[in-house]
Structures are given as structure tokens and as C-alpha cells.
Amino acid sequence: VRALVVGASGGLGLAVAEVLRERGAEVAAAVRDPARLRLRGRGLGFARVVRMDLADPGSIEAAAAELRGDALPDIIVNATGVDARKSLAEHTLEEIDRVLDVDLRGPILLTKAFLPAFLARGSGTIMHFGGFADGRLAFPFYSADVAARAGLRSFVESMNRELAGTGVSLCFFSPAVADTEAERPFMPLWKGLGIRPVAPEAVGRAAAAALAEGERVHIMGGFSTRLFAAINAVWPGLADRLLLDGYGKALRSFLAIAGTGAGH
Ligand SMILES: NC(=O)c1ccc[n+]([C@@H]2O[C@H](COP(=O)([O-])OP(=O)(O)OC[C@H]3O[C@@H](n4cnc5c(N)ncnc54)[C@H](OP(=O)(O)O)[C@@H]3O)[C@@H](O)[C@H]2O)c1
Q: How many C-beta atoms surround the C-beta of residue 207 within 10 A?
């Protein structure tokens, strides 16, 4: 199996790349800065490294053009993502653009760029990483982030209907809270809320298993996370009372204490 991990420089991207490699896949990496990936020693072991900035449509097209023929991946795992956890008032225009570009427009353009070759071959899977829970659980102080993730989840569903019978499919993958460098500053918040983070390797293994099973949606975090997401979908007021009001309060005070400021 030939795999391409987009965002292989990230905590979860690297973990999924390692698990896929252990399971016998030939793994290529797509990153914003190939030199930095090599400097970190992470270039080692990748079959090839291509440049791709999800905020730059030209770079996505160029990478897809480079990875044709024998280099065309069977699976693509897009483990990129950025977030902005703060009140909407504190989001700058640049931050809103960055979140929408990397978490929503970029994945759409990535899919579009590889789709013709996948369809011509009659096979291919693209897994997009979303945020915590089902993509539609709207945490307060994550406004632009959750808008992008919910959009991505709907995009994946829509595309799977569009692609029915072609041999090509998409998967929306929602990681559990994982102890990556990027997430580490928020660990006191998650621990305070009773959420125990998993190791990045556990996310890598879950992603590899979801790919092997051909799942279209995979939500980590156990039955309680899936149940809560389902409750939120049908009865958001109940989700508020059960959990989200409390999360809101905890986030507000945590963000204010951390100095990133929920503000109001
Ligand atoms: N860790 C968790 O607890 C957790 C839980 C749920 C969901 N998630 C989601 O899972 C994804 C990965 O999380 P992580 O903890 O591994 O974060 P991370 O270590 O910060 O990794 C993010 C990755 O995205 C890449 N990226 C950012 N902007 C990009 C752009 N414009 N073009 C291409 N790549 C770009 C980064 O590349 P550079 O190295 O070049 O910056 C990096 O490889 C994110 O979407 C995150 O929100 C994480």
C-alpha cells in the first residue's frame, strides 16, 4: 500500500505515518516545509517528501501533479489542522482565514486535486482529520474552528454520496484528545474536565484500523463521546445541561488564566 500523510510534521501526522509504515505501507510525506521535516530527523524513512501548504492552492496542485503514475498514493491521510481557542472578538481576520483555509478549504482542494487520478484508477481513500468528537459538537470559544470542522464533516458525507460506486471514498476521522506538543498546553484543562489524553500512537493505530476497515466516519473517545455527540445532534439543550455549559465555564476561566483571554 502506498500512503501519503499530509501534515507528517505534526504530532498526530507523524504517529499515523509510523503506524502505517510498521504495517508495511510505503509512506510519503506532504509538508509545508520539507527542509524542516528533514532537520527534525523526521524525513528519515519517508519514501518521498513533497511540499504542500494547504493555504496555497498552487502547492496542492503541484504536489498532486508530482504524485502521479507509480507515485500515486492508495490512501491519503490529511492530519493537518490549526485552531484558535478564544472569543470571537479576539479572532483576527488573518486567524479566521487561516482556520478556514487549513481546516476546510484546504481539505476540499486536496480532495479535488487527487480525485481525477483516483477515479481514473477506480480506487483511493482520503482520510481527513477533524476536531474532537463528531465534527458537529460546537464547543464555545472554538467558533471558527468548529465551523470549519462541521463543514469538513458535511463535505466528506456529501462526497461519499457523490462518489458512490466509484471505488473512491473519504473518511472523517476525529481523534481523541492526544498528548501532542500542540495540545500539551491544554492538558490541565482536559484533565480538570476528567478527560484522559491518549498517546499519539493510539491515534495512529485507530486511524490505520479505520482505513483498513474502510470506515467513512471514525470518532475516537469511546462510546460516551459518540453518545454525547448524538445527544447534541438531536437535543443541543440537553447537551448544554449535561456537559457543554460546564465546558464553557471551564474554558472561559482556563483561557483567561492562560492569558489567551476568553475576555467576556
Ligand atoms: N492532539 C489532539 O488532542 C487533537 C484532538 C482532536 C483533533 N486534533 C486535530 O488533529 C490534527 C493534528 O493535531 P496535532 O496535535 O498533531 O497538531 P500539530 O502537531 O500542530 O500538527 C498540525 C499539522 O498541521 C500542519 N499544518 C498547519 N498549517 C498547515 C498548512 N497551511 N499547510 C499544510 N500543513 C499545515 C502542521 O505543519 P507544520 O509543521 O508545517 O506547522 C502540522 O504538521 C489537527 O487538525 C487537530 O486539531 C488533535
A: 28
